[in-house]
Structures are given as structure tokens and as C-alpha cells.
Design brief:
Chains A, B: It comes from Streptomyces tauricus. Chains A, B: InterPro entries: Homeodomain-like_sf, HTH-type_TetR-like_transc_reg, HTH_TetR, MT1864/Rv1816-like_C, Tet_transcr_reg_TetR-rel_C_sf. Chains A, B: Keywords: DNA-binding, Transcription, Transcription regulation. Chains A, B: Pfam families: TetR_C_33, TetR_N. The structure is a homodimer. Chain A contains 9 helices and no strands. By secondary structure, chain A is mostly helical. The first copy, chain A, folds into 2 domains: about 55 residues, Arc Repressor Mutant, subunit A, CATH 1.10.10; about 150 residues, Tetracycline Repressor, domain 2. Chain A is elongated, with a radius of gyration of 20 Å. At the A-B interface, helix 7, helix 8 and helix 9 of A face helix 6, helix 7 and helix 8 of B. The first copy, chain A, binds a DNA duplex through helix 1 and helix 3.
DNA sequence: TTAGGAAATCTAACAACGTTAGGAATGGAT
DNA sequence: ATCCATTCCTAACGTTGTTAGATTTCCTAA
């Protein structure tokens, strides 16, 4: 009995070590260096051992994607402590772009079509929920009635992703991208506020 | 003499056939099917022949990316014929997202980090120039003085790319993405207009 | 017309990849 | 001490991008 639990513990442990090794390779050397053999070497095993813990490479990468979203989520939670509703939004935007700049390779696999669309949406959900929550309190604070919260959130999410990609694809520098995200957010929010007259009629977005 | 020009013509011709075959494979079967051997087979040559026309696979893919941008540019030119300045902007936004939906695999390689960042920026330039031009006439028509045109353009470009990616990554449907892009554009432009008071003082974006 | 040489093309191979099969070692239970 | 399941490794398969070397094709020049 006790031996079987120990074995399970060891299994879970090496599984975790594989994920950590993969994450380290990805972050330090990029997606091209992320090979099964390389990971196996780093954890001092032969390549097939990896397949005892993950069905295939995509399943392992999915774990990295999930880790990335947890990381992003924690940074969002940190940024969400800002009391001012408006500054809170801009800080979220800035933080998202900063994340993309600080973890470019991770950011890449987090938005790579090779990982299944449903799985990707699933692991990204908590992050989007935070955005949705912040957007709700923001609209309440400004008496803005958004006709469709999901839609507004998707616009924000898409916009942030696009501008973050701008830097990650090398079109603009990281600092500028952060500034762009803040300005884009400001413009969008201002647009929504303007669409809602003082009497609080639902905006048509 | 005349034979050498004929040879050059034949060379250019097979080069073009390779590009067309590659484009066809990419659009119909996706990036995974785009292999050198497959392309060579389709043009009825052996694989090494491809390397007489392109230094490596990336150089060939870059040609597809350039083609994609030319295609996008022509659709932009078509959409830019809309006389109304505001509708022209929304049509551009809509058209961009539509392009991503109709050419998903092409859209993917057009924004793939495997192709060199400088080259990618270079082939995308004409498209961005159209966007910049449209943005200029729009701001003039509305007496909006944008402090930094490049920045405004980058925000637009990033936003459109982000929302197009939303559908291309499977987060939202194609029709909804097009609508989202229009709404995002509307909000941003409205935000910029609001930032510029009636007297035409430069907006702080 | 034919000998020579450049250009074009093919076959074969290399290294690296993801992945699987089959056997050897390990180690707790009877 | 024996058995059996788990763990692990070596070897291999098929595919990828890419290159070397041989072979064929075809124009040029004697």
C-alpha cells in the first residue's frame, strides 16, 4: 500500500520535473529548442519516458500554456489591486503587454494554433473572467451600460492581444507597445462612455 | 544569346509555378502539408530543384507572405472606394477580418514569427500605408488632430490583427469577429473624436 | 557533325524530429 | 527464492529540411 502511494508520488514528481524542464527550455531558448529528446536529457531520462507522462508533445505543450495563463492570471490579480477603476484598467492593459514582452516564447505557445482551440479557450478562461469582472465594475462606476458584456470583453481581449503581438512580432518596441495598449484602452473606454449619454441609456455596442 | 534569355524565362516560369503550387497547398491543406517534397511533386520535379530557386523553405514561405499582403492590399483598395469616410474605415476593418477568415492558413504565415521580422514588416508596409492614408483623411474630415499618426495607425493595425486572430484562433466565429472589429473601430474613432474638442486642439493620443 | 562543357535534374544520403516496439532491469509481494 | 508488474532504455520507423555527387540534357564551338 505505502509503496504504491510512494510510486504515485514519484510519478507525479517526475511529471512535474518534465514540465519545469520544458518550461525552462522554452523560456530560455525558444520554441525551436523545445524537443522531446532535449527535455528528456535535461531531466536525465531517455526520450520515451516522456510519453509515460504525456500522450504526445502537444499535451506537454498544453501544460506549458496552462502554466503561462496561471502566471498571467497572478499578474492580473496583482494589477487589479489598484483602487482607481480607470487606472486599474490601464494597468491591466499594460501588464498584459509587459507579460508578452517578458515571456515572448511562452506568449507564443499560449496563442499558437497547434494547441487545440477548445483547450486553449479553457485554460484562458480564468484570465478572461478577471477581465470581464473588471469591465463590469468599471462600467458600473461610470454609469455605462454595456449592451453586451461578452462582446465588450472580446473586443478588449482582442485589442490587447493584437497590440501585444505588435511588439512580440517585432513591429514596435516593448515600451511603445505598452504605451499603445494604454492609449488604445483609453480610446475604447472613452468611446463607450461617449456612447452612453448621461441618462444611462444602453450603448449600442 | 536568344537561348539564354529563353532559359532565364523558363527558370522564372518554374519559379512561379513553385510559388503557385505552394500557395495552393497552403490554402487548401494548411501549413502542415506545406513540405518541400509535396511542392516538388506537385510541379513534377524532385525536391532539390526547389533549392535552385529558393535558398531555403523560409525564403519560399516569405514569397507566400508577400503574395498574401498583395492580396490584402487589393481588397483594401477595393474597400477604400467607399466615399463616406466613416463607413470606409469600418469597411476596411471588416474586410481585414474577412480576409483572415477566408484565407486562414495564409493569414497565419503572414503573421508567423518564423519569417524574419524585418522582411515581414517590409512586405506589410504598403498595406499599412493605405491604413495610414485612410486615417489621415478621416482625421481631416472630422477636424481631429492626431498627435502621432504612426501611433494611431499602430493601434488600429494591432486592434484589427487582434480581433481577426480571435476568430482565426477559434475564440469567436467569423461573422462575430467582423462585427467586433467594426464595433472596436467605432469605439476607438469615437474616443479620438471625443479627445479632440470642437476647437481642434491636438488629442493627447 | 562531333567533342566539350555548362546547366539542369535526379538519386541517395545526412541529421534531427516525434513516436513506437520490444527487451532488459528493477523491486515489492508471495 | 520466485514471480510479476512497473520502469526504463536501445533501436528503429517514417517524415522533415537540406546537401553531395552522379547523371543526363542540351547548347556551343571546332
Amino acid at each position: 500500500m505505502s509503496t504504491s502511494t510512494r510510486r504515485a508520488r514519484e510519478r507525479a514528481n517526475t511529471r512535474e520535473r518534465i514540465i519545469e524542464a520544458a518550461l525552462h527550455v522554452l523560456e530560455t531558448e525558444g520554441v525551436a529548442a523545445l524537443t522531446i529528446r532535449r527535455i528528456a536529457t535535461d531531466v536525465e531520462y531517455s526520450a520515451p519516458v516522456v510519453y509515460q507522462h504525456f500522450a504526445n508533445k502537444d499535451a506537454l505543450v498544453l501544460e506549458l500554456v496552462a502554466h503561462g495563463h496561471r502566471l498571467l492570471l497572478s499578474e492580473f490579480h496583482h494589477a487589479a489591486q489598484e483602487p482607481d477603476t480607470d487606472r486599474r484598467m490601464t494597468r491591466i492593459a499594460s501588464q498584459y503587454v509587459r507579460f508578452a514582452g517578458e515571456h515572448p516564447h511562452l506568449f507564443r505557445v499560449m496563442n499558437d494554433p497547434v494547441v487545440d482551440a477548445d483547450e486553449r479557450r479553457r485554460v484562458a478562461e480564468p484570465v478572461i473572467d478577471v477581465l470581464k469582472e473588471l469591465l463590469t465594475t468599471w462600467s458600473a462606476a461610470h454609469n455605462v451600460v454595456l449592451a453586451d458584456l461578452d462582446q465588450a470583453c472580446e473586443i478588449l481581449w482582442g485589442t490587447l492581444y493584437g497590440i501585444a503581438s505588435l511588439s512580440y512580432l517585432g513591429n514596435v518596441g516593448g515600451d511603445r507597445a505598452r504605451y499603445l495598449a494604454e492609449q488604445a484602452l483609453r480610446a475604447i473606454l472613452l468611446g463607450w462612455r461617449t456612447e452612453t449619454p448621461a441618462n444611462g441609456r444602453p450603448a449600442s455596442n
